[in-house]
Amino acid sequence: MAAGYIIAYVDVTDPQQYEQYKVLSTRAMQAHGAEVLARGGRTEPLEGELAPTRVVMLKFPSYDAAKSFYASEEYLAARKSREHAAKMNMIVVEGA
């Protein structure tokens, strides 16, 4: 079965409020077996215009598991805490 990945491009607008999101999203990731491949760290555009301040990459056992994480009650609480703290673009990708 192919792994599922969630990739998020984040521009944090309220760092203090975003800290609460990080706590709640970490709990949700742990509850759903996410493997964190990248979370923060340096970013540098190599091509195109995309230049988020933060990139997050999560690996799940399957595409459906990644979607279940996103729809979960645990992650819903994290998403609510993130309102007005960041601009988020997130995709789910099926692995090869």
Automatic annotation (TrEMBL):
Give the InterPro entries listed for this entry. Answer: Dimeric_a/b-barrel, DUF1330
Q: Which Pfam families match?
A: DUF1330
User: Which residues, by range, are in coiled-coil regions?
Assistant: none
What highest taxon heads this organism's lineage? Bacteria
**Span of domain DUF1330:** 4-95
Q: What is this protein called?
A: Uncharacterized protein (DUF1330 family)
Its lineage opens with: Bacteria, Pseudomonadati, Pseudomonadota, Betaproteobacteria, Burkholderiales
